[in-house]
Design a protein that fits this description.
Layout (H helix, E strand, L loop, with lengths): L13 E3 L2 H9 L7 E4 L9 H11 L4 E4 L13 H13 L5 E4 L2 E3 L3 E6 L5 H18 L4 E3 L13 H12 L2 E5 H10 L4 H6 L6 E5 L4 E4 L2 E3 L8 H9 L1
Length: 239
C-alpha cells in the first residue's frame, strides 16, 4: 500500500471534536491540529451556543465526519431521511469527507456496538449496494472504516478480500483504522504490515489511530481508552 497524500481530503493531524473542549478551541485553536473530526449524529440540528461554536470552527478549519449509526451491514432499510440530513450538514459546513463503519449496529433496535459483517460474497453485494445508495443520496463518495472483530461466523473469504471486494464494487473510499488492523492481527494471528500493504492506497481518505486494552497476550480489545502504543505508531509510519 502506498498513500498518495495529494488525494487526501485532509492532510496532517486531526482531532475528534468534543463539546467538553469546544469553547477553548474557539478561543484559541492549537496550531498542531490541521482538521477536526465529528460524528454527524452529535451535531446535526444542534443550535444555540454549541451550534454557534461549531459553525465558527467549521469556518476556520477543515472538518470530516465519521458516522456512528448508519448500519451499513444491518437488515433494516437504510435510514434515508437521516442521510438527507447528513447531506445538508455536509453541504452547509463544507465537510471534506463522510465515513462510516463497515459493520452493523441495529437489529430490532440499536445494539450500541459495532458488530462485524460476515465475510461472505452475499454480504459484499448487499453492503456495496447500500453504500452506492448512500453515495447517491449524499451526492459524493463516502469512506468505509475497517473495524475490529473477535469472531467471524460463516466466513467464506479472508477479511482483506472482503474489504477490497466492497471497495471495488461500491467504488468508495477507505477510512483506514490502523489500530483496528493491529488489534485484529493479534486476535486473528496475521501480519499487520502485510495486511495494510494489501489495501488499495489510492482509495484511502484518511486514517485513525487509537489505543486499546490488553485482555490477554493473544487478545486485544478495541476501546479507544488507552494511549496509542508504539507498534501502532510504527504501522502509521509505514502507511
Amino acid at each position: 500500500m502506498h498513500l498518495n497524500n495529494s488525494k487526501y481530503p485532509v492532510t496532517g493531524a486531526g482531532l475528534g471534536l468534543r463539546r467538553a473542549f469546544i469553547s477553548s478551541l474557539a478561543d484559541q485553536f492549537p496550531s498542531q491540529v490541521d482538521f477536526m473530526e465529528v460524528a454527524p449524529e452529535n451535531w446535526i440540528d444542534v443550535g444555540g451556543r454549541y451550534g454557534h461554536l461549531f459553525r465558527a470552527i467549521a469556518e476556520r478549519i477543515p472538518v470530516v465526519c465519521h458516522g456512528l449509526s448508519l448500519n451499513l451491514g444491518g437488515p433494516a432499510p437504510l435510514d434515508e431521511a437521516f442521510l438527507h440530513k447528513v447531506r445538508q450538514f455536509l453541504d452547509t459546513h463544507n465537510i471534506r469527507c463522510y465515513s462510516e463503519h463497515l459493520s452493523y449496529c441495529a437489529d430490532d433496535g440499536h445494539l450500541y456496538d459495532l458488530m462485524p459483517i460476515p465475510f461472505t460474497e452475499d454480504a459484499v453485494h448487499y453492503v456495496a449496494d447500500r453504500i452506492r445508495r448512500t453515495q447517491d443520496i449524499i451526492g459524493r463518495r463516502m469512506a468505509i472504516e475497517n473495524v475490529s472483530y473477535y469472531a467471524a461466523p460463516g466466513q467464506e473469504m479472508p477479511e482483506i478480500e472482503f474489504i477490497n471486494a466492497i471497495l471495488e464494487e461500491a467504488d468508495c473510499y477507505l477510512h483506514l483504522d490502523i489500530n483496528n488492523i493491529y488489534v485484529n492481527s493479534i486476535n486473528h494471528r496475521y501480519d499487520a504490515e502485510t495486511f495494510m500493504k494489501s489495501l488499495p492506497g489510492e482509495r484511502i481518505a484518511y486514517a485513525h489511530i487509537a489505543g486499546h486494552y490488553v485482555e490477554a497476550e493473544d487478545l486485544r480489545i478495541d476501546t479507544h481508552g488507552s494511549d496509542v502504543i508504539d507498534p501502532v505508531w510504527d504501522l502509521l509510519a509505514k502507511a
